[in-house]
Amino acid sequence: MDLDTVRTFLAAADAGQFQEAAADLAVTQQAVSKRIAALERDLGVRLFTRTPRGAELTIDGQAFLPHARELLRVAERAAASVRAGRRPLRVDMIASRSAASGLMRGFHRAHPEIDLDVVMLIDIGEAVAAIRSGTIDASFRAVAMPGRPLPEDIASVRVLDEPLELLVGPAHALAGARSVTVAQLAGHRIWMPGLLPGTEWAAYYADLVAEFGLTIEATGPNFGSDALLDTIADTPALATFMGGRTRLVWPAGHGLRRVPVTDPTPVYPHSLLWRRDDPHPALATLRAHLAAAAPGHGAAGTWAPDWTIER
After folding, report:
1. CA angle, corner 179, sides to 176 and 182, nearest 5?
2. Cα(180)–Cα(177) distance, rounded to whole angstroms?
3. pLDDT reported for residue 228
4. Per mean pLDDT, which range of 30-39, 119-128, 131-140 is the poorest?
5. Could you tell me which residue ranges the HTH lysR-type domain spans (predicted)?
6. Are residues 156 and 276 in the same domain?
7. Structural domain that includes position 166
């Protein structure tokens, strides 16, 4: 099967328009139409229906979509198997301001000769699939959800326990506290609109709530960190959790406070995941750097779910 036609099909499916797919692929719209038509002839089915809004997948197109993605993953993995030492090391992290970002910046400073590609995937299942296919070499993840163990070909090591801090506005009842115990948080409203069901961080906070009887609200749309900081600054009744290594910048007038949580200190356990037979030579360098540079984990006086990744 012609991989260029498969790649064009995926671009059109993701964009929903042939014109936008053409721009993404740096070809003409006519070339996109010809490639799609050739693929449809090969398969003997219609893959798209033209609509006023653009191009929508037919039922056959929807059925072909996951297999088309797998075709390109296999092709990439085949190419990577013979040129792994020549391409950048691809590492996934959840957000650019996260603790994992800080770890990778430290790695880049220590090893500027190693080319890096940083990607940001949301779902742990997507990250694991990308590792297994060779699309990425490693991913920073925190926990595996109950009932969803890692595949046997995926290895992991816990590299950092990040303490949680309470973020409050200047009028919050705990704004003047130098620290706060977990027990003192009972009854306070902790707002976290970014808790997506099915993600490992949602599972982590669900366990935290169950363990300590906290009230975490995930209601409302997630407009990003700036909107969250604005709301916390202006609402005395609300607080939120932030990782102690999460980089935040807010306007001086906000008067936000980061309050350490103790007795015990909840920690968010970051692990590095990789495929056991990944051939990229820089992967071993990254693992050695993290083992030497990152703090330990499982310290006394801390709490994390007992289903954290480490295998």
Report:
1. 120
2. 7
3. 87
4. 119-128
5. 1-58
6. yes
7. 161-267
Per DSSP, the three-state class of 56 is strand
Distances (CA, A) of 66 to 78, 122, 214, 280, 311: 18, 18, 40, 26, 29
152 and 288 part of one domain:
yes
CA distance 222 to 175: 24
Secondary structure element (H or E) that encloses residue 260, with its range: strand 257-262
Is residue 173 domain-shared with residue 261, that is, in the same domain? yes
Global pTM exceeds 0.70: no
Q: Do residue 153 and residue 175 come from a single domain?
A: no
Q: How far is CA 239 from the centre of its chain?
A: 24
Radius of gyration of the CA atoms of the chain, in A: 23
- Total domains, the chain: 3
pLDDT of residue 252: 80
Q: Does 101 map to a domain?
A: yes
Residue that has been written with the tokens 């992967």 in this structure: 283
Q: What distance in Å separates the CA atoms of residue 273 and residue 271, rounded to the nearest whole number?
A: 6
